[in-house]
Specification:
Layout (H helix, E strand, L loop, with lengths): L8 E2 L5 H26 L4 H29 L11 E2 L15 H25 L3 H28 L2 H33 L1 H11 L2 H26 L10 H18 L9 H26 L4 H24 L1
Parallel strand pairs: 1-2
Helix pairs in contact: 1-2, 1-3, 1-4, 2-4, 3-4, 5-7, 5-8, 5-9, 5-10, 6-7, 6-10, 7-8, 9-10
Amino acid sequence: MIPGVVSRRRFTDLSEQEVLALAISSEEDDARIYRTYSEKLRAEFPASAAVFDGMAAEEDVHRQKLIELHQKRFGDHIPLIRREHVSGFYARRPVWLVENLGLERMRDEAEQMEGDARRFYETAAARTTDADTRKLLGDLAAAEARHSDKAEELVEKHLDDDTRGEEDREAHRQFVLTWVQPGLAGLMDGSVSTLAPIFATAFATQDPWTTFLVGLAASVGAGISMGFTEAASDDGTISGRGSPFKRGLSSGVMTTVGGLGHALPYLIPHFWTATVIALVVVFVELWAIAWIQNRYMDTPFFRAALQVVLGGALVLAAGILIGSG
């Protein structure tokens, strides 16, 4: 065995005591995950936080019952065995990744958590030939099924249609403010602001490789600048626009993508072929920006298209005229 690497055991090699210990540690982990979700949501989505509080409490109850069963059958000492020690056992997302999950994704993750546990126990129970083990696994599967039922009851109790709709609208608003708006600003800046230097270079030199290098430099430089500007301009505390790191990442990446879209065609060595393809890409970029504005920012499509296409056309024309002069 490689030093520092823990050997994983097969589930079929576990004793009944170890299966019970594994169930106990799994219940502890799931309760911890639900409480992490709850704390993350409490300020903005109190009703959903209450649902996850209730689910964590339900996990605590089942964990206590499992501990009592272990004490009755095997004594007070519970072996230390966790999911990562067992080959093929369902995995859980690391808790620290909760920072990157939205409200709806947390709900989906919770549903998947309960479903994963239930299916695992049902499958394991069906494959074993030992009567006591089959009963134990069947009881665990039934407990997980009851968890799902309890989760539905908690949702009905804390999340009526109006409350859920309000939280969903707030989650959508937060998504737009944190990801879409900075990303759209970056895409617009990257697509439009790089048109002039790229096409000016193209028509001045008619050298595709030089044009590509200028486009690459302009795109990457603009991406870095926009990313740092967005992250430094607002920490999100007062405006509620979310993490500055996320906003900066979205803005910086989309700025770079916007510029690279019409720079990459100049990797083609034939100047006019590269230029025609680059112009087609510009057309697609500008209409994509208009669509995003209409889809997420509620800007009328015709007005968005007129603004973006007209602005882009003017910058493009300036670049071509300057490069041809």
